[in-house]
Amino acid sequence: MSDTAPLQISCRFCRPLVEGCPSVFEVSLTSIAAEPVRDIVLEFRCTGLCGGLAEKSLSRPLNAFETLLLEVDIDPERKGTPSMTVHLHASTSRGRFTAHGSVRPAGQAGISILERPADMQSLTVQIQEKAFFGSVFAEGGLDIGKVKTLNDFLQLHLPVPMEPVTLSWDGFPVARSLKADGIFAGRFRLIEQLGQGGMGVVWLAEDTRIQEQVALKFLPETVCHDPDAIDDLKHELRLSRQLTHENIVRIHDLIEAEGTVAISMEYIRGATLSALRRQQPSRVFSPDQLLPWLRQLCAALDYAHGKGIIHHDLKPLNLMVTEAGVLKVCDFGLAGSMAESRSRHSRPGHTSGTTPYMSPQHLLLGSRTVADDVYALGATLYELLTSKAPFYAGSIEAQIERGNLPTISERRSILRIEDAEPVPENWQRTIAACMDIVAEKRPLSGAAILRQLTAASPPVIPVATPACATKNAPFENSLGMKFVPVANYQDGQKVLFSIWQTRSKDYAAFVKNSNYDAGEHWRTFSYKEVPVGRGEGERAEDSSHPVANVIHDDGVAFCAWLTKRDRASGLIGPQDEYRLPTDTEWSYAVGIGEKEDAKASPKDKYMGVKDVYPWGTGFPPPPGSGNYADSTAKSKFGSDWGIIEGYTDGYATTAPVGRFNENTLGLYDMGGNLWEWTSSAWEPGSSARVLRGGSWINCDSVNLLSSRRLSLAPGDRNFSCGFRCVLVVRGRSSP
Question: Is there a single domain that holds both residue 300 and residue 200?
């Protein structure tokens, strides 16, 4: 096996985990070896009850830098816990090797080298797990002589199976022969190894010429043997040596000796912000903790940018804090050329940098501008305040291009970070501005970022009472639900509609803070944990999705609790109340109130207004109209699933609220997502209640009419039903 011949193996399930064992696995093999890899045999065994076994052999060598996608069928006869083990047997000119990997739904990955060439001394293991909202990433170097399995070195307890599991061997032939008290390049006395990662091996050393301790970074073989990378490094180091700033790690020299390349730099005794974050009680920093370091970081960036030098790979791992509390920016002049070299050997055509922190322009065009560093700074702050990079699961590149990012508060809620100090609104706005998909809209400098972060909050649009609410200035209650006016009645009574269907997080707050027995039905909807989002790991139980599988009385109880809560806090008046909307109010909200007889029963008004839909007239709906049965659902549930032909909204079941076009009143999802309970009876004397709006399961033109009603007993529970609140403001006139 060549010293520079890593082989990466990615194993992932090609279909969602439901019950029983998956029958098909997709395996992507990517060789980043400098020579062909031969005799490849992959063995798969389902470790569920079925014990299904399959084997796949490659009839030809896997060429250097080639990728193959294999499909392996396992036919389980009995159901069991979905899991698998993978054995790889392969060889290069340097000998045979065997690797073993496993993926288990308990969220642990175990990898061990069963057999190896004698000269293979180090192994870098990277694990990426796709959770319901993002992923977990970890990497560690293993000493083959001491550690046999990953679980002996690093135990990960993750919520769902990991994809992919990646094994990669990186050769550090000179670095691994170095020993404490040894001399490198006739100049550096080695003291101790500080760490090892994908970008090299770092030693603490004494530079005997200047009698000063330095950090020596020995570069990977892929860089050492890449003339273009070395030329790029020399050019960037000439620039970075101009940087003499107290918050930038000083670069000393590039040394080519003894068959390898090393960079000497200022030695920092401290820890990275990434490591310090993990030590926090909630695994996140507070804004007050970050602000002193952020001032130093912004000063360092403005200084470097003023000299025309872009960092190009800013992230928490490249920010160190000394024992004295001074922040230091690492790897100015290193990250770009080193990452580009590794990309040439692993992902041809891919730009340098670390993907979760890359701007769309950096990702797609390879741009190197101040705006790209500003974006990375925003992404770094986002991670330090939420514990996760902005985009970290599924197709990260596609998500970066779209730029559809939850706010910091929303991400914290999703990750159940409840005890940490809240992040002020101006911080959230500023970080979002740093990550704007349009480069020209980002702050121009570190100083501009600090001004926005520390500026007084902008004046709040005066909505002193719910009676003052308008479409452009909605009333916001204690749960963050927003309300806009829909109808005015006599005696100053005003009806405000929630712009969203009631979210899971709103209902969860009700269940947590009341004595109401809501049961578990509302928690368990999501087709046995089938992912239902746009390939980004979203699930129906995400807090921004509408609460589903609730009965009429659940909505009534929620409104009563919320009324009591907001009256007590003074947000609403003593006569104001939340409740479910009436059928007539709902008709006004969807735009057909004037076309119906207000005195008629819902039964009599059933489908009375023809060819009018929440999006307007005509069928099918235009793109962005709402969440209905579409091609995404068909791909999840099979060819028999009825859909609106040619329509795609990207969600198989529920979608997060507010993802589609609003109507003229500023209301979202008045068609689709979930049927909405109202307070109105189907007809006089009936106990059945009316639901409006259609849902994600509906596809035919009749069910999607604005005048379509559904009649259900108040105790009926259905996975396509939720509710929306209205706020009735009484006893005062509107402004």
Answer: no
The count of structural domains within the chain is 4
The mean pLDDT value for 313-322 works out to 91
Spatial distance between the Cα atoms of 389 and 731, rounded to a whole number of angstroms = 48
Contact between 673 and 501 under an 8 Å Cβ cutoff? The reply is yes
Mean pLDDT over the full length of the chain: 75
Are 639 and 696 contained in the same domain? yes
Domain holding 95, by residue range, is 7-168
Site of tokens 């062909």: 36
pLDDT the model gives residue 586? 96
Is residue 334, in this structure, part of any structural domain at all?
Answer: yes
How far apart are the C-alpha atoms of 481 and 589, rounded to whole Å?
17
Contact between residue 702 and residue 607 where contact means Cβ atoms under 8 Å apart: yes
For residue 273, pLDDT over 90 is answered with yes
Do 561 and 669 share a domain, yes or no?
yes
So what's the pLDDT on residue 563?
95
Whether the pLDDT of residue 311 is over 50: the answer is yes
pLDDT value of position 469: 80
The CATH number of residue 547's host domain is 3.90.1580
Q: List CB contacts of 708: < 8 A, sequence separation 6 or more.
A: 606, 607, 692, 694, 702
Chain centroid, CA 267 distance in Å = 34
Q: In what order do the strands lie in the sheet with 251-257?
A: 183-184, 188-197, 200-207, 212-218, 260-266, 251-257
Rounded Cα distance, 340 and 276, in Å: 28
pLDDT, tens digit, for every residue of 365-421?
777 889 999 999 999 999 999 998 888 765 566 677 777 788 999 889 888 888 888
Residue closest to 207 by CA, chosen among 166, 151, 148, 266: 266
**Statement to judge: residues 197 and 145 lie in one domain:** no
Contact 191, 205 (CB under 8 A): yes
Angstrom distances, CA of residue 15 to CA of 23, 415, 635: 9, 25, 10
Q: Are 122 and 232 part of one and the same domain?
A: no
Q: Where does a domain end: 427, 454, 481?
A: 454
Please list, in sequence order, all residues whose beta carbon lies within 8 angstroms of the beta carbon of residue 355, skipping any fewer than 6 positions away: 363, 396, 397, 400
Q: For residue 244, what is the domain's CATH number? A: 3.30.200.20
C-beta separation of 550 from 712 below 8 A: no
Answer yes or no: is pLDDT of 438 > 80.
yes
CA dihedral 655, 659, 664, 665 (to 10 degrees): 70
For residues 201 and 218, what is the distance between their CA atoms, to the nearest angstrom?
5
What length does the chain have? 735
Answer whether residue 459 is part of any domain.
no
What is the arrangement of strands in the sheet containing 122-131, beginning at the earlier edge strand? 134-143, 122-131, 162-168
Mean of pLDDT values over 325-333: 88
Task: Report pLDDT digits (tens) over 105-161.
Answer: 333 344 444 444 455 444 444 443 332 222 223 334 444 444 333 333 333 333 333
Residue 734 lies in a domain: no
Whether 491 and 441 map to the same domain: the answer is no
Residue 115 bridge partners (DSSP): 98
Q: For 147-276, where are the E strands, in sequence order?
A: 162-168, 183-184, 188-197, 200-207, 212-218, 251-257, 260-266, 270-272
CATH value at residue 290: 1.10.510.10
Tokens of 79: 């159901």
Q: Model confidence at 35, in pLDDT bands (50, 70, 90)?
A: low
Is the pLDDT score of 734 beyond 70?
A: no
Whole-number Å distance between alpha carbons of 62 and 39: 9
Judgement on whether residues 443 and 517 belong to the same structural domain of the protein:
no
Identify whether residues 146 and 195 lie together within a single domain.
Answer: no
Amino acid 297: pLDDT: 96
CA distance linking residue 580 with residue 577, whole number of Å:
10
460 lies in a domain?
Answer: no
Boundary (domain end) residue, out of 119, 141, 168: 168
